[in-house]
């Protein structure tokens, strides 16, 4: 059980209004909050303790959210990251999740979805250093041929319409297939789906 008062949510967003709104929302929910206007400001601040989670905007001026994620990894200062963005970008979402992000949320952000994502990230980080370790692997034999091809497209960061064009399917069919994959793989989010999909795709490629 996460004690929100003992954790800090580090909000990195260049929009002052968004930072203020998130600080108020998170403070009311019992989290301690620190704000940063850029990736550089966060790195200079050196937030080591208490334990916390990084709520990171994908689109930042100068070094972006993905750049900050990679910098923290190089510096050995990893902490759970929940990305936020005003735009749905499958390719960059996949890159963020492969880099270890726990979730990826679109603005405007639903409060309960945000709290759940932060609590899950904090709880998972307290138990294990990697979100992948908390998920059960699925055998590729459980998936049909179409699902395996769609899964490869998802891991490659392709949009639904791109996968649909490659397979000569409708975008609706690909969306339905993706929903079926989430059920079969017991993925609770798109982040879970990418984490579970990558080892399946790697195993198929090595056969």
From TrEMBL:
Keyword Hydrolase among UniProt keywords: no
Record carries keyword Hydrolase: no
Keywords from the named record: DNA-binding, Phosphoprotein, Transcription, Transcription regulation
Domain Response regulatory: 8-122
Positions carrying 4-aspartylphosphate: 57
Record domain HTH luxR-type: where: 136-201
Protein name: Two component transcriptional regulator, LuxR family
SUPFAM superfamilies, A to Z: C-terminal effector domain of the bipartite response regulators, CheY-like
GO biological process: phosphorelay signal transduction system; regulation of DNA-templated transcription
GO MF entry, a single one: DNA binding
PROSITE patterns to which the protein is assigned, alphabetical: HTH_LUXR_2 (PS50043), RESPONSE_REGULATORY (PS50110)
InterPro entries: CheY-like_superfamily (IPR011006), Sig_transdc_resp-reg_C-effctor (IPR016032), Sig_transdc_resp-reg_receiver (IPR001789), Tscrpt_reg_LuxR_C (IPR000792), WH-like_DNA-bd_sf (IPR036388)
